[in-house]
Amino acid sequence: MKTLHLLLSLLLLLPISESNRELFTVNAPRRVHGTVGSAVVLPCYFTFPYASYTTFEITVIWKIGVFYTGTVLFNATNRAKGQGDFENMVHTNINDRYRLVGDPRIGNASVEIKEARLDDTSEYFCRVEVKRPALPAYMKENNLGTILKITSPPVILNMSTWVVNGTQFTLVCHVQGEPSPNIMWIDPQQSRLPMNASNTPVVRGPGRYQVVGELHDPKLGGNYTCVTTNTFGNSSQVIYFASLTEGRSVLKVIIGALVGSLLAIVLIVITLAFWWRKQGTMVFTPQRERRQPNSTNYCEVKMYHQQATPEETSTVPESPEVNGH
Questions:
Q1: Rounded distance, CA 252 to CA 258, Å?
Q2: C-alpha span between 200 and 194 (Å, rounded)
Q3: CB–CB of 245/197 below 8 Å?
Q4: How many CB atoms lie within 10 A of CB 176?
Q5: Which residue in 70, 245, 254, 303 has its CB near the most CB atoms, within 10 A?
Q6: Cα of 47 vs its chain's centroid, Å
């Protein structure tokens, strides 16, 4: 029994034979689909004779763009943690958007992308490396890769009005979605305008998954509706357009109100003028300013009266004596 156990241990220390190397395979589906905002799983499965042995470490790597030299998005190593336990040591996780959802010990190297975006559409490559301490690693990568296609219902990013020379108007509807959405306009009278006609062109851009719908020279004033659809949904939004005739009407109303106000003021002034004329002329006499007496002059007059001589004072003449004779 001890001899058998020793032989097994020695076999694990020996390099992997060519026959076992041929049994090391990595497989992944060619195409995967996902939708914006949802989690997407990129499946990857591999076979290796000693994958369950604790002396082996299994590294899972996912790349994007190009086989073998593509940018590494995720890199994690599954290794023994204790008696019968394993752990995943994450070395690379771009923007923390990837998670190992498969168990490498049973040949599953699948990863999950969180909250898929339209720009996640690309080709991905799964790479698995199996190694033992102090020995070269054995690795395999699916050279065809997995093409991920992310789709999205249309979303109206914004609506606006362009003006050229003050007289030429264009309504603009900016939409994002995949596949490329269709755009249709509905006028204020609820009439559907022709799609992608000479006055309702739809052009690609400015973004990779964006289109712009235009409505040239709208004739009516009121609410115009942009309706956009693709195979995954639809969306609509309203923009108000004030026509030139409507603008002129509003201007006439404003001018009329101003003229009416001016005439009313003139009539009030004329009425008050006639009323004042009828009541007579009102004379306003300004109140004289009361001046304080000059203290110097006042003192001089007072002293003059005090120093006056008896002769200068008025006396009562004596009565003539009555002759007793």
A1: 10
A2: 7
A3: no
A4: 21
A5: 70
A6: 47
CA distances from 237 to 158, 213, 231, 292 (A): 9, 12, 19, 83
The span from the CA of 114 to the CA of 99, in Å, is 8
CA separation for the pair 101, 96 (Å, rounded): 14
Query: 3-state DSSP call for residue 129?
Result: strand
Q: Residue 199's beta-bridge partner residues?
A: none
Place of tokens 């599954």: 78
* Helix or strand run (H / E) with residue 76: strand 71-82
- Token readout for 62 is 């996912």
Over the chain (325 residues), the average pLDDT of each successive run of 10 is 39 46 86 98 92 84 96 96 87 98 96 97 97 84 95 97 90 97 97 95 94 95 97 97 65 69 83 75 52 51 47 45 41
Q: At which residue do the structure tokens 């009541």 appear? A: 279
Three-state DSSP state, 280: coil
